[in-house]
Amino acid sequence: MSGLYARESRSVSKMAHLRFFPQAVVGGSGAYLTGDDGRTLLDFAASWGAASLGHAHPAIREAVNRALSDQAGASYLSTANEPCVLLAEKLLSLVPERARGRVWFGHSGSDANETVARMVVAATGRPRILAFEGAYHGGTVGSMAISGHPAQQGTRAAGLTLVPYPNSYAAGSPEAAKDAALADIEKLFATEVPPQEVAAFFIEPIQSDGGMLVPPDGFFQAVEALCRKHGILIVSDEVKVGLGRSGRFNAFEHCGIEPDIVVFGKGLGGGLPISAVVGPEAIMNHAVAFSLQTVHGNPVCAAAALAVLQTIEHDHLVTHAERTGAMLREALDRLSTRHPLIGNVRGRGLALGVELVTDRASREPAARQTALTVYRAFQLGLVLYYVGINSNVLEFTPALILTESQALEGAAILDEALADVAGGRVDERLLVDFAGW
Ligand SMILES: *Cc1c(COP(=O)(O)O)cnc(C)c1O
Predict the structure, then answer these.
(1) pTM for this structure?
(2) Any atom of ligand 1 within 6 Å of the Cβ of 265
(3) Can 136 be counted among the known catalytic residues?
């Protein structure tokens, strides 16, 4: 264990910890981090996707420097500032027509989703919200209230109804998963959830923290048809898988739907805290002073976000993510032919998941082996976390600038880590302080 990691435990609270191994870093560049022990680590997590352009990207450094050297205040609450206006104009150009109204800025996916949840109920007068079991929409009281992830220690909203997210692997086929999930929603509408009381349906176009679940073809089109029929707003939470990561700019584009409200976060700031909600004018302008925090819309974070969006466009990072993702996916598929622990490889672009099972026939989750695998990968130089309601899905959300050779380098490390875990060469006692989630 490194010196910095131990020192941290004597001064920093654990309340925000989600730790998988004793990682302590002192720097980073591109897809690599520098450990305080001098090791170079290949980063396949990018801080849960937040470091969308990798570490120390020149475009972000330049934008932040410029914004700070002639600083247009520190907030948009009581004054307009140029970076926020430019960013809003840019975001409006990136969403479908029906969402092209106004933009709200926050600090995180959590405050954004919380704002949307309050706003849709207030603006429509409908008290209910639908979301998916396994969904992670945030870690504040209001965003946990509309989430469905079992690891959360918060209370759900009274008006919330959770429905199962279609899981093609567990159900045996995409068709079976789709039919079952749609039947659930239709049954609810016919019984305890009158659809005319539902303000909005929060969706994730890939359910990331729930296990990197890719929805079956046609599923969200059917959900969209139901929502249109009953006047229910569709909120697409693009916080982790949006902004090019999936191989399309918006992840919902894979589903062939047009949401009413789009939520951006994580990678938007490229490592700085900023989120955005984009939606129709009538809803986004429901009331003044409705949802605000003092340094919301600060020009420094907005300038960083604008640089992120410009870089994604200028460097063709959406196509790049699609290509590098396909390459990484193929490498992971090859690993699955040699490692019986791998039950399923899935995802889109650079949002990939590998589900580990103890037995391919029964699909029994291999949670312990998953925790050991990420620990061993870290020892071998690869940073990778896991997700899933059963804690058994390795998650790949590297920076969009990942190169094909880096993708292969990471896959080779994972190959070795999986072999060591399957061979019983990783000491289980390493996990004592690392419960993960
Ligand atoms: C991480 C995440 C959030 C919450 O974002 P924070 O920045 O942690 O507040 C919301 N939705 C999804 C899909 C996420 O992955």
Answers:
(1) 0.98
(2) yes
(3) yes
Boundary residue ending a domain (280, 314, 348): 314
Q: Across all residues in the chain, what is the average pLDDT?
A: 97
Burial degree of 198 (CB within 10 A; 0-12, 13-18, 19+): buried
Read off the CATH number of the domain in which 155 is found: 3.40.640.10
CB 389 within 8 A of CB 211: yes
Order of strands, sheet of 102-106, starting from the edge strand that comes earlier in the sequence: 102-106, 275-279, 261-264, 233-237, 198-203, 128-132, 160-163
| Residues 16, 66 within the same domain | no
112 lies in the same domain as 239: yes
For the chain, what percent of residues have pLDDT higher than 70? 100
Number of domains in the chain: 2
Quick check: CB of 110 below 6 Å from ligand 1?
yes
Predicted confidence band of residue 2 (pLDDT cuts 50, 70, 90): low
**Are residues 299 and 424 both part of a single domain?**
no
Give residue-wise pLDDT tens across range 225-270: 999 999 999 999 999 999 999 999 999 999 999 999 999 999 999 9
Choose, from 136, 169, 385, 386, the residue flagged as catalytic.
136
Is position 35 within any domain?
yes
